[in-house]
What we know:
Elements: H1 2-20, E1 38-46, E2 50-60, E3 67-71, E4 81-87, E5 90-98, E6 101-111, E7 114-122, E8 127-136
Antiparallel strand pairs: 1-2, 1-8, 2-3, 3-4, 4-5, 5-6, 6-7, 7-8
Amino acid sequence: MKTKNLFLLLVISITVVFSACQPDQQPTPTDARDVYVASWTCNENSSQIGPSVFTVHINKVTSSTTQVQIENFYNIGFNFNAKVEITGSSMSIPVQTINGNQVHGSGTKTGANSISLTYYVNNGSGIDTCTATLARQ
Length: 137
């Protein structure tokens, strides 16, 4: 009987020791682009068109770890997007053509819910200089 109790005590002790141990947990990787992904209200001021307000969506570019895309950039439709390079709170819009418009510019994430952009659009009738403030919806 004593051997049986010792064996049972040993099994319980081992179970408690192993169940109390947890595997090493790796920190969840964070993507610096996550803070940009959202729907935003864009308050744009264009040197050619004047002020306008419209919605844009910012999503991650799946083929890159440093880029996002702004859908409906320059209010030309959600089927068109501008690729933007993210470095911390700085944004760079490399030269690219979107629906026949050559664009480039830069910006800064100015707060948790705010982005400030300056960009230039060659829309065929000259260079349109734009400033925009994006507010998270």
